[in-house]
């Protein structure tokens, strides 16, 4: 095993990684991460479905894993390896100009100056239907997510054409995405737990960094710099790594410092994936068992578990993106935990356009199962950690209501998303392990 240096000079982008410990050649060795799992409230019913997306007001217990320091900075800055060439688009320059205004601070309880910041990275979603076009325009201009001919012209055109359809979908789920609300609740519970577990790095403050809606990642970094943090953790909210999601967010951090022409004043660490963390797997398994209990006893063993993940274009997969393998690893670990008690499939949703994407598609799999008389299905969103348009509209309405009625399904349910904390406050390596004895922890699988 190669040795692990104490620091690094640049924010890493694409790493080879297993279960939270990542081999980072540019940084000279293995690097690790941490996981905080937060509780839902009791599930609520939505049109006969188990949505279960509410979070309990108090954090009952959780596991935290944070290993090894990654220092962003040093005597010189190195450009990270990119998901694809030309990722610094004209859109990035436009966003930099727009950020000249001072964004609204992400207010949190307490008035102590924070020492450690956790930047919660995600795609984000429009909170109102009026924000949909701007959201889509940023999305279609992101070359880490997709490449289009004359993208600076075609991207805005596609966004404008798709806006009315997507606005109607958001109206059907209440008028906007709840992802910011849930991320805030997760962040509040996370920093409360970290203040308790790691007082020597407290106070902790969470920051929300979205790619396509406010607060944008760049706006969050500006606030972190103004707060004068000692250290910062870029914490992806995607359990499985993809260049199109986590990679895009990490590129945004790099581009911010490159464009403003200065080095960060805080020491950065990165948690870029956690697909097979035991706590994550246990929470998936526990939720699935609870949902299976809602099926008629005589049907329970024949329920088909459909693990549904957001699809990717095959052009991205063929470049070596690790996302499908990491999603598959999560599914395998969950089914292993369940003892392979039920038939299951890994399926893919949200395909857009005529080009080849990962398959089989979720809706086609449901139709195929119906034709074979398999009419009891449990949908498990395996790559999401909070509700948004893909779960609340696509899974809950398009598939579980409209398609289920057309196919004549007997029972279809969706597993809730936010993880419960009865997955325990076990003696996982903690923040103090990460900061005070970085070499004492072994890779976690």
Automatic annotation (TrEMBL):
Segment forming the signal sequence: none
Molecular functions per Gene Ontology: 2 iron, 2 sulfur cluster binding; ferrochelatase activity; iron ion binding
Record field: catalytic activity: heme b + 2 H(+) = protoporphyrin IX + Fe(2+)
Any one GO BP annotation for this protein: protoporphyrinogen IX metabolic process
Record's subcellular location: Mitochondrion inner membrane
Region of interest: Disordered: 89-116
Keyword Transport set for record: no
Primary location: mitochondrion
GO cellular component, one term: mitochondrial inner membrane
UniProt entry tagged with the keyword Ribosomal protein: no
Membrane topology note: Peripheral membrane protein
InterPro entries reported in the protein's UniProt record: Ferrochelatase (IPR001015), Ferrochelatase_AS (IPR019772), Ferrochelatase_C (IPR033644), Ferrochelatase_N (IPR033659)
Pathway assigned to this chain's UniProt record: Porphyrin-containing compound metabolism; protoheme biosynthesis; protoheme from protoporphyrin-IX: step 1/1
EC number annotated for this UniProt entry: 4.98.1.1
Record's keyword terms, sorted: 2Fe-2S, Heme biosynthesis, Iron, Iron-sulfur, Lyase, Membrane, Metal-binding, Mitochondrion, Mitochondrion inner membrane, Porphyrin biosynthesis, Transit peptide
Pfam families noted in UniProt: Ferrochelatase (PF00762)
NCBIfam families: hemH (TIGR00109)
Family according to the record: Belongs to the ferrochelatase family.
Role description: Catalyzes the ferrous insertion into protoporphyrin IX.
PANTHER family, per the entry: FERROCHELATASE, FERROCHELATASE, MITOCHONDRIAL
UniProt name for this protein: Ferrochelatase
């Amino acid at each position: 095993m190669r040795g692990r240096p104490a620091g690094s000079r640049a924010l890493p982008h694409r790493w080879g990684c297993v279960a939270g410990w990542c081999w980072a050649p540019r940084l000279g060795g293995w690097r690790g991460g941490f996981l905080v799992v937060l509780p839902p409230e009791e599930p609520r019913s939505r049109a006969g479905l188990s949505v279960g997306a509410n979070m309990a007001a108090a954090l009952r217990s959780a596991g935290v894993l944070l290993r090894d320091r990654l220092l962003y900075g040093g005597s010189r800055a190195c450009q990270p390896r990119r998901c694809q060439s030309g990722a610094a688009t004209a859109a990035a320059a436009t966003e930099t100009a727009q950020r000249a205004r001072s964004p609204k601070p992400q207010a949190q309880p307490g008035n102590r100056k924070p020492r450690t910041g956790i930047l919660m990275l995600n795609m984000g979603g429009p909170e109102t239907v009026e924000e949909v076009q701007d959201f889509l325009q940023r999305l279609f201009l992101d070359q880490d997510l997709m490449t289009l001919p004359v993208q600076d012209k075609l991207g805005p055109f596609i966004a404008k054409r798709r806006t009315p359809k997507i606005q109607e979908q958001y109206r059907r789920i209440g008028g906007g995405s709840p992802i910011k609300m849930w991320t805030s609740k997760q962040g509040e519970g996370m920093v409360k737990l970290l203040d308790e577990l790691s007082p020597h790095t407290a106070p902790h403050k969470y920051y929300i960094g979205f790619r396509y809606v406010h607060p944008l990642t760049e706006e969050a970094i500006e606030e972190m710099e103004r707060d004068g943090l000692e250290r910062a953790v870029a914490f992806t909210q995607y359990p499985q790594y993809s260049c199109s999601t986590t990679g895009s967010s990490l590129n945004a951090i790099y581009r911010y410092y490159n464009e403003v022409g200065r080095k960060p004043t805080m020491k950065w660490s990165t948690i870029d994936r956690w697909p097979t963390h035991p706590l994550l797997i246990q929470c998936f398994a526990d939720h699935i068992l609870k949902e299976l209990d809602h099926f008629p006893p005589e049907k329970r063993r024949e329920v088909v578990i459909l693990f549904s993940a957001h699809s990717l274009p095959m052009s991205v997969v063929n470049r070596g993106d690790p996302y499908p393998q990491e999603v598959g690893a999560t599914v395998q670990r969950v089914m292993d935990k369940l003892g392979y008690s039920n038939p299951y499939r890994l399926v893919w949703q949200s395909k857009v356009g005529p080009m080849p994407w990962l398959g089989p598609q979720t809706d086609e799999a449901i139709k195929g199962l119906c034709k074979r008389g398999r009419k009891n299905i449990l949908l498990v969103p395996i790559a999401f950690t909070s509700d948004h348009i893909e779960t609340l509209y696509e899974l809950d309405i398009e598939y579980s209501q409209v398609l289920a009625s057309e196919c004549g399904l007997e029972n279809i349910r969706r597993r809730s998303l936010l993880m419960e904390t009865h997955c325990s406050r076990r003696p996982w390596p903690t923040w103090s392990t990460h900061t005070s004895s970085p070499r004492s922890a072994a890779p976690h699988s």
